[in-house]
Write a structure and sequence with these properties.
With about 350 residues, this protein is α+β, with helices and mostly antiparallel strands. About 20% of the residues lie in helices and about 35% in strands. It has three domains: about 140 residues, Gyrase A, domain 2 (2-Layer Sandwich); about 80 residues, 2-Layer Sandwich (Alpha-Beta Plaits); about 70 residues, Elongation Factor Tu (Ef-tu), domain 3, CATH 2.40.30.110. It is globular. It starts with 5 loop residues before the first helix and ends in an 8-residue tail after the last strand.
Length: about 350
């Protein structure tokens, strides 16, 4: 499968890889170069491979409220939130963004790897609401970086200073109607632009308009290192159907005062592991699947690991027993050798 911007990626000499069936750019100028540019300037991401579903009708609110662990009763119109969806077992179906357009109209953004699974789950549990998969009709681009707001403001009619984190508004970009949200997956200020997928020329128009801000196209490689530094989890690596929100640092998204699928299992769970951050104290990079040892015993596994271009060291996430504390030492097995590391927060990077 290809997004509307595939030819743009090819023209920029992107390295194309298969990502859950999608032909997507891994990198253009290089992962580190793209990563650093997002931290210093602004980057443009094609995230059209992610799923976009609408839930409409008189039962839309009740359906979404049951599907997610977070509480959408706190949302006004044109606001959104982050939340897991869980199975009855408490395991995570997916972690998603929910936007309330109004009480009878919700927009859900889901992970690319889970599009079909999520759609089936949502339809199964949506109390006669009208579900539509708009993923192929609506393109999705993300503009991220410290100059993202200033760059995008020159392209759209709306005052972006009024757009707070997790807000979503209707606007126009280069004369095309669009939705603009302010969430992001990099740790920087960022915006997502939803518009008709036939308007692929908007990619080039954004690149040209934001050239004064040193904009660069950014691929999946830098997207992964950016989200890791920001402490954001990746479904399928850090969380999955065998992980509950209490094992990941997602307890804050679980609102036991409301009903949701998986509530009973999560309330009764005895947590035996937790997801933490780590940094390696020696010159190696840990990767997904590396064993974590405590007092010479295998006690967990690395879920994400990479070199941090911002901090110039190896960082990652891993599961450890719940009693482990920040700054405690662990060992990680890399290539049949053990390397010292220490536990830290999952959030390595915080923008000024």
């Amino acid at each position: 499968m290809k997004t509307s911007f595939y030819e743009m990626h090819k023209s920029l000499n992107a390295k194309i890889v298969d990502f859950h069936g999608w032909e997507m750019p891994l990198q253009y100028s290089g992962i580190i170069d793209e990563h650093v540019n997002v931290r210093k300037n602004v980057g443009l991401f094609d995230v059209s491979h992610m799923g976009r579903f609408t839930i409409k009708g008189p039962n839309a609110y009740e359906s979404v409220q049951k599907l997610v662990t977070n509480d959408i009763s706190k949302l006004g119109d044109s606001h959104g939130l982050y939340s897991p969806m869980c199975y009855e077992t408490g395991g995570i179906v997916d972690d998603i963004i929910v936007f309330r357009i109004n009480r009878e109209y919700f927009l859900l953004v889901v992970n690319a790897s889970n599009r079909e699974k999520d759609l089936g789950w949502i339809v199964l549990h949506s109390q006669l609401a009208n579900i539509e998969n708009i993923s192929d009709k609506i393109a999705l681009l993300a503009l991220q970086g410290p100059f993202a707001r200033e760059a995008l403001q020159r392209m759209v009619e709306s005052n972006l200073d009024l757009l707070k984190p997790f807000d979503i508004i209707t606007s126009n970009i280069f004369g095309t109607e669009c939705l603009i949200s302010r969430t992001g997956y990099t740790g920087e200020d960022g915006f997502e632009i939803f518009f008709d997928s036939s308007k692929a020329e908007i990619w080039d128009k954004i690149m040209q308009s934001a050239s004064r801000f040193n904009i660069k196209a950014v691929g999946l490689g830098a997207r992964d290192t950016l989200r890791l530094e920001a402490g954001l989890m990746l479904y399928g690596s850090d969380i999955d159907e065998n992980t509950t929100p209490l094992e990941a640092p997602l307890k804050w998204t679980v609102k036991f005062e409301k009903e949701f699928i998986g509530k009973k299992a999560i309330m009764n769970q005895k947590v035996t592991r937790k997801l933490v951050g780590f940094e390696i104290l020696e010159g190696r990079i840990a990767r997904h699947g590396n064993k974590v040892l405590i007092n010479e015993l295998v006690s967990g596994v690395v879920t994400s690991g990479s070199f941090s271009p911002t901090f110039k060291k190896s960082i990652g996430f891993c599961f450890v027993p719940p009693q482990m504390l920040q700054d405690q030492l662990i060992e990680i097995e890399i290539g049949d050798k053990l390397y010292k590391a220490k536990i830290c927060s999952t959030r390595f990077y915080k923008r000024a």
